[in-house]
Every structure is written in structure tokens, then in C-alpha cells.
Amino acid sequence: MNGGCRAGWFMWSFLCRELRAAAGPRRLRCRSAVFASSGGAVPFGSACGEPPGTMERAVVRCVPSEPKLSLWFVLSDGSAKHMQRDQTEPLGRALARIATNAGKGHAKAAKKSKKARAEAGPAGEPVSAAPLAVRLFARDGEAVAEDVPNAEAWQDGAVLQIGEVKYQVERNPPSIAELQLPRSLLAGFPVCPKIRTEFGAPQHCLFRWYREQPGGGGDEPSPGGAAWLEAPVSERVFTPTNAHIGLRLKLHCTPGNSQQRYGLPREVESSGPVEAGPGACTFDSRHLYTKKVSGEGLIRTVSYNVLADIYAQTEHSRTVLYPYCAPYALELDYRQNLLKKELAGYSADLICLQEVDKSVFTDSLAPALDAFGLEGLFRIKEKQHEGLATFYRRDKFSLLSEHDIAFSEALLSDPLHKDLHDKLAPYPLAQEKVLQRSSVLQVSVLQSTIDPSRKICVANTHLYWHPKGGNIRLIQVAVALSHIRYVTCDLYPGIPVIFCGDFNSTPSTGMYSFINSGNISEDHEDWISNGEEERCNMSLTHPFKLQSACGEPAYTNYVGGFHGCLDYIFIDINALEVEQVIPLPSHEEVTTHQALPSVSHPSDHIALICDLKWK
């Protein structure tokens, strides 16, 4: 079974369990999918003259890429039947199999009925266990021919009739494949559930939130004795208050799609209670500038190294790098609460993140920012567990294409970088170090949804970290700029670039000078940044006119042993200009807990934020 089939099978298995649970010991009635909170939801269709909500339901899962379809229904004796049939099989064979299954159930029911009648006395006629007629009717009431393939026959709104019982066919109704709440819940911080749907989308689901009320008195008592009170929130994101401290949360989610069609709901309870938040955070004052999404023609851009968990959780980090940080504040769940609140509060159009753990992107950031209207892209570093993430606001931009590269691979094998490779060849030690690095470049071409003539190239990177690696960073950024030139000149001629990242370079370095001026001389001191053995003198140029949109802050990285400006948002000044730069936290805020990260700041870096304007 291939990966797609396997994933689909697990989704279907869960749906069957939910349906079976909903059916209980008796038959499941087909409810019209109209909920009090649905805001005019459309009920499932009806056929053969039956009004909605009066028939049983037969749920069909049929995906073109999979060889089989699945069928689920509940017989009159209360037994649930789950069948898998080839999509190309004639309908008649599937109906014959249903008749066999139904006949067995009917015979059992007849035996029980006969035994009950015998015990009750001679009155009454014997119950027949004759085979049941099974037919499938199209929406117009016409019987579907038995030579029609299953994939074509089992259409939404059709009616399956087994004996006297009618089942309305629901083909591929929206379903929830995964629903999770974060393990750590903090008062004042948004709770963003992870939701994975099939035949639906999270933005079309219906949400109802509950808070625990221990000791009873609520609307829905639980087996443990607690009760749940519904919160006055019907949004995907719920922000608990101090009143919720010590209480668990529950989410009731009904999957839906863009046609306002809804499937079976699912519930999830938090594993622990809401805890008290840290109080004032370094980003609270910055949120005062970013309460609303930027207006038309503006692009609010964020660049942020968020500190990968694999680096925050080492013994070296706890004892040497960040000994001043409370251990619980280095825990992933705690930092993710801060990070999600921080990023959501910036109301950004573009977010470029570095040091993003793959699992954090999948399980935390992507679901959370999706709830706030942002679509995410991820590029992992070569042979690493962390990488780069780019998010864009989906009502402002659509993705045209991605052009990510690994620096080492591109330098080694892409003809685009042959000249640079040839220049580096006489310096084998420097060349070897460049090729050993796992650094990557994430490049996304976006198109404005408001003005399709406007396209933009968003580049995101994290250069080599070593303090003596200035020569390596020069080579890496030369590869990056050459690749960006190819995208913006050859593939999409004339489109501007926004180049974000943690460049691990202060404004006094050759890397910064190279990007700003467009050239670097072969005698620049950074070519021998790691001594004579790694010398790799060469002159380099690039065609862009780039400048740092946020200027040269005193620092964007502040740890116990170092502080300096390492992060930048470089913009193409031929097409873009800076409307405003969101002020960084004050020095007092940054040093309240000595340095970063801290109980009030999730990373050792500080986010750069600016509003850009098309010229």
C-alpha cells in the first residue's frame, strides 16, 4: 500500500470508529448537517422523495488515486458494516456482497424474533429470513445499472435500499483526521489547535470551546466528575484568561468545506490545565504598532531566528550559553506559547523564520499561523532537523513557485555557479569547508492577489555561524545572490527581491558591505578571517541595489557573552521603500532577565519588523 493509500486508510478507519460510536447500539439516523452555530449551513441532499433527516446514512470514501473505495453503513440489527471494493468493479458485485452481509444480519434478527415469539406463545406468524433485495438509486430516483463501475455508481445523494430500509449516500463528507491541543496552555496566550481534515479545510470547520468546571454544575458532565461550560467563543483560536487558570479546555470541532457541508464532529480535551502567563513580554509594546494588518500596497515583513529546540535543550545551552534563563523557559512548549502570541500579534504579510525545527513547523507554527491567515513553506537544512520557514498572508499573496537550494550542492553541481566554483578551486581548505556546510536558501515567488501584475521574490537564509567564518559567509551569500539573480532576471524578469535572514554578520563585515555596495575586493580582510590556511581571495559583484530596511540596530542577538546586529531585511530599493520600522524592545526590556532568551522572550534573537511600500 503506497503512502497516500495508507494515509487515506487511517483517516477512513478513524471515521468508521466515529460513525460506529455515533451509531451506538441502535441504528444511526442521517442527520441533515445543520447546526445551530453553522450560520446557514446546507443540509445533505435527499433523493427518492425522502425528506432530509429521515433516512439512514451510507458513507462512501472514494479517492481517484486509490484503487479501492470504502463503504460504511449500519444494518437494521445495529451492526456496522465496513466494506472495501475495487473502484473498477461493477456495481452488481458490490450490491450482491451487501445482500449477503445484510442477509446474515437479517437471518440472525429473524432467529431472535422467532425465539422471542416462541417464548411468548403460539400467536403470530413466523418471521421469514428470505434474502433481501438490494438496489442503488441515483438522485433522480432511477435505479443505477449493475454494470456501472463502483467509482461512478456511488455518487453523493444517491440512495441505497436494503429491503425496506433506505440509506442516503454521502460521498467523501468532510472528516477530521487529526485534532490536537497544545500541551502547554497559558492565560493570555492564544490556543491554536492542530487540525488536519480530509475533504474539508480548517477554515471551514465549526468550533465550540468549553472550559472545565470541577465538581459539577456544567452542561456536560464527564466520567471523571468534572463538567464543561461552553465559552462564548466560536472561533478557531481561543485565548484563555486568568479566570481559566487551573482549568482544562475542551474543543468541539465539526469538519466542513467551502460548500458549507459538514461531517461528524470530534472533540479533544487538553492534557493539562491553563497556567498563569509570564506577565509583560518584550513584544507587548511592539504589538501596539501592529494591531491591524497593513493596508493595500504595504507589505509588513518579519525576519526572526526563533532558536531551534535542538539547540536550546542541550546541556551546553543550559549551563554555558543561557545559564541565566530559567530551565522551564527553555522548554519547547513554553517558548512556543510565547512565539505564537508574538508572531500572531505582528499581523504580518510575510514572515521569514530561521532555526525552525521540522516538528515545530508541522505541529505548532504552521497550524497556529494558518489560523491567522498565513500559509507556510518549509525548507530543512541538509542533514539537519531544523531549517527555514516562510509564511505569507494568503489574502494578499499567492504562491507562484519555489526555488530553494542548498549552497554546497548548488556550488558543486549548478552551472550557474561555475565561475565562482572555479575561483574557489585554488583554495582547497576553504572550498572543503564551504561544501561541508548545511546552509540553505529558501526562495519563494509570490504574486499579489490584489494586483496580479505585482510579483515579488522572497529569499530567506541562515548563513554559517562561526565568528571566524567571514570568508565562508561571503561565498554563501555570493551563491545566494547569483541564484536570486537567476530567479528575478531569467525566470521572472524585473521582479523585486526581499532578502531576509540571520546572516551572522555585523555591519562592519565584508558580507554586509558586499550586499550593500554590490562588490567586494579580493584584498578584503574577511578573506583571511580564519587565518592564512583558509585564505581565498577573490573579487565578487552582484547587480542588485539592496539596503537594510531596518537600518543597523545596536543588536538583534543578545546573549550573556555577546550582543550585536546579525539579522537583516534587505530590500530592492529600485522597487520598494520603507514605510515604517517597528521599534525594537528597549534595552531595559531586553535585559530585565539579564539576557535572551528569558521567561518573557522565546529566542536569543529579536524579530525585525518593517512595513514596506511599492514605489
TrEMBL record:
Alphabetical list of Pfam families matching this protein: Exo_endo_phos, PDE12-like_N
Localization, UniProt: Mitochondrion matrix
Endonuclease/exonuclease/phosphatase domain residues: 303-605
Gene3D superfamilies: Endonuclease/exonuclease/phosphatase (3.60.10.10)
Record GO terms (molecular function): metal ion binding; poly(A)-specific ribonuclease activity
Keyword Hydrolase: yes
Domain of life: Eukaryota
Protein name, entry field: 2',5'-phosphodiesterase 12
Upper lineage: Eukaryota, Metazoa, Chordata, Craniata, Vertebrata
Recorded name of the encoding gene: PDE12
